[in-house]
Amino acid sequence: MPEDVRESLFIVVPAYNEGPCLANVVGELRETYPHVVVVDDGSTDDTFEVARRCATYALRHVINRGQGAALQTGVEFALRRGAQFIATFDADGQHCVEDIPAVIEPIWRGDCEIVLGSRFLGSAEDIPRTRRLTLKAAVLFTRVVNRVELTDAHNGFRAFSRRAAEQIHITLDRMAHASELIDQIRRCGLPMHEVPVRVRYTPYSLAKGQSTRGALRILFQYLLGRVFQ
Amino acid sequence: MSVNGFQIIVLAVLGCLLVLTVVAMVRRWVTRREGVAWTLVWLAASVAMVWPGILADLARGLGIGRGADLLLYCTVVVVLCGFMMVYVRLRHIRRDVTQLVRELAIRDAIINSDGRG
Fold it and tell me: How far is the alpha carbon of B29 from chain A, nearest alpha carbon, in Å?
């Protein structure tokens, strides 16, 4: 990755009660990347203390507003700080820092404006069967409802050019933002690529992740959001 | 026209609501349009209470049969519309709260020295 790209890349990490894991994730990111933005989404543990100690920028939602809201806050902050490239990265240690160059490359090369990481093009280590099925159902849903062909619709590892980030505005505060984002990408006509990424499932990340019931709640939130938008 | 005890109680309550609505309108706690809408609701309820035959005639005219059934159907429709309006309002408020929380977070961001703040 060229030095000027690395210098103008902001990595946004939304975090809610990620105290036990955040220091490692942010520490690893900061070894290579100078701009790491942690948005603490009103955590009740020491997430914000860890963020202010480890991250380049620590932001705090005074009340919990959901992952979609935290991502949008991080993106808006990065834009105001002059970011030219923005990547979003999960705080629970699922994603690999080594994958960031591959996620950013199609954007700085000018091939597209948005890159979505795909665990099904890359690898999903120790993914439970029910999680795999739920994610595949989400992919099918994205094909039918959003009319976008993807292999992984709900991966938090994404990258945006400045132009794309300025056009996209996530309004669904909670987890349904992933489907809303795909809608907006399609509506804005932004060129998009999927690239393979690794996702590591650990007991910690599985406990933090969405259950099948949670997925149904997300579906309901998304459909309500579409109706009342 | 004879008025029984129940009708007197309900009419008294409706009268109080009407007065409250007028006060709210005068003191601008509600918009003029909202005040007029609520005034019409209380007046319609009062008319239906004093002359229930009007409701029955209206129901027959609409092919519903009984005045009580017409009232029930109208209530269901009004309550559902009310729920939807409250839900939409709630969504707007949530969105505003998020925007406020976002602006506070950005304003109060902590920038470590190498963020070249």
Answer: 27
